Amino acid sequence: MASKVIHAIYNDDDILMNAVKAVRNEHYHIDEVYTPFPVHGLDKAMGLAGTRIAITSFMYGVLGLIVAIVMMNFIMIKDWPQDIGGKPSFTYIQNMPAFVPIMFEMTVFFAAHLMVITFYMRSKLWPFKKAENPDPRTTDDHFLMVVDAGHHDYKKMSQFLKDTGAIEISLIENEDDH
Amino acid sequence: MYTLPNKLKVFAIVFMVVGAIGMISGFLSVPGSTAEVKEMMASHHDGGHDAEASAEDSHGGTHEATAATDSHDSEEAHLEHTLHQLQNRPWSALYIASFFFFMITLGALAFYAIQYAAQAGWSPVLFRVMEGITAYLPVASVILFVLLLLSAFHVNHIFHWMDPELVNPESDHYDKLIAGKSAYLNVPFFLIRAVIFLLGWNLYRWISRKNSIADDTAEDHSYFKKNFKLSAAFLVFFIVTESIMSWDWIMTFDPHWFSTLFGWYVFAGMMVSAITVIAMVTIYLKSQGYLEQVNDSHIHDLAKFMFAFSIFWTYLWFSQFMLIWYADIPEEVTYFVTRIQDYNLPFFGMVAMNFVFPVLLLMNSDYKRVNWFVIMTGIVILAGHYVDVFNMVMPATVGTSWFIGLPEIGSMLFFFGLFVLVVFSALTKAPLVPKRNPFLKESKHFHY
After folding, report:
1. pLDDT digit string (tens) for B112-127?
2. A85 FRET partner, CA 20 to 30 A, in A53, B151, B167, B346?
3. Per residue in B130-161, pLDDT tens?
């Protein structure tokens, strides 16, 4: 089924924020907003569900901590105990203070890298992927709001979007499903 | 304008009275002679020593060994030693409590100066709360200085190095290490430094408060600019003097031992306690219907600072510990040996309270906006840092004879009552929100 969407282009993030709020007040449906930089508070204004990446980050951190403990236990205690500076290397706990920096670094390393990879996977980004943004100006200094035209009256809607401060409005008919 | 509720006033005074009773009974129950110590130890040995069990075990072993050789002298020396420790105990407890609340107020002053110097946009609605907390600084300064004077005039012996015998080459007690430091570590210079530091901090607090009040009715931003420049200058003065203060007033309890990051360590504890108190006072005032411009985002920011400074404190605690543990140089490692052997529970318990607790409770972004969550975590953080100060002072002054009893709890209650009384009285003296700070509008609309 062909779907109709309206592309409304803005040139200021404050105007965009107010426009998003106004559009949602009129109960039009916003499909997506493309911005050249992260606009603070836009997710809340659009009514998007909160991100769960913080939870994954915590789990990755715990995983990193466990990996560090198991790794240091294998390397320094089980496999090849070494007497460094006369420090006991018979049990993990006796030598633990020396391993704390490694435990910390591995926690951060796992949390950071796996979180980034999760973010890429969740937003369906990978190398050589074709850009999805409909207008290259959204990578420079313009903001683009995709509003679902549905069965609304196009004239009334475009007038309304103009009033919210859009500088350019176009009706796009997509052949493929959305 | 905020008016001091009668209930709060009575609450504070009750705390002070109960605390004073505890403190006085602590002073009265100090043994006067070795005979009394012997009696106390005999009646004590049956029970009540659980907390010190591990410490007493190792200590008791050597004690029995010396007793077996039947040298009466060494037992007498041991009793004498315990007597001195017990005599130090109420003084140390008093010193810890007064220093802890002094730390909070000085930390709040530094935080306040940082807000001005950074021209922070989020915090001006909290300025009067911070000014209220720093109103305790003059009171704390006088009390602390009197305590230092009492030590200097040998009313108590919590500062061991002040004993003139130690630097007298003729004496039996001559201590080469302390004598070597005496060019810096002598009583007159110690007191001169204390006067300079306390005057400097109080001067900044007095002028900046005056400018802040004058700014409410001013025509232009000249008072704000004055405070901006003053705060920047104060911060330079503060970070140098705070470091020296922490050596003088805390590190010299162990005069042989030194740590180069001790100033930072005390600073981190100071900042996290101060920010916690700012958050708690703000939430309390808000719950009473004041400070309506303060929103959850302000609390969120304060909680972020609590979280961040807790981690910073842990970082410094561990940095100090690990270097000394790894190098294992006897003169350095003795500091941690006494704390881990004789103060095992408070030493590691405090790390759990100051690190594990805030990290797990305040990690979630949403929890930082839940007011009662911030209060509960704040109570744990403050208790943890109180124990931290306890751990810095007590091992050097009372050694193994420590116990958390009447003098410790009494001093804490007394200074808590005094702190609440002074801070909340000061809050009534000016409108709770500044009127025309240039960043006020931004602060009122602050939103994350």
Report:
1. 999 999 999 999 999 9
2. B346
3. 999 999 999 999 999 999 999 999 998 899 89
How far apart, in whole angstroms, are the C-alpha atoms of residue B421 and residue B4? 9
Q: How far is A67 from chain B (nearest CA, A)?
A: 20
C-alpha span between B250 and B298 (Å, rounded): 33
Interface size between A and B, measured as CB pairs under 8 A: 18
What are the Cα distances from residue A118, in Å, to A39, A50, A80, B20, B286?
A: 21, 16, 35, 59, 40
Mean pLDDT (chain B) is 89
Task: Let me know if residue A11 belongs to a domain.
Answer: yes
In-domain check, residue A43: no
Structural domain contains residue B42: no
Confidence (pTM): 0.87
Are A67 and A95 members of one domain?
yes
**Residue B70 resides in a domain:** no
Range of the domain at A151: 3-36+141-174
Task: List the single residue in B with minimal CA-CA distance to A88.
Answer: B326
Residues of A in contact with B363 (CB under 8 A): 58
Q: With a cut of 60, say whether residue B54 has pLDDT above it.
A: no
Predicted ipTM of the assembly = 0.79
In a domain, B109, yes or no: yes
A98 occurs within a structural domain: yes
Contact B322/A97, CB-based, under 8 Å? yes
Q: Measure the CA–CA gap between B86 and A84, rounded to whole angstroms.
A: 42
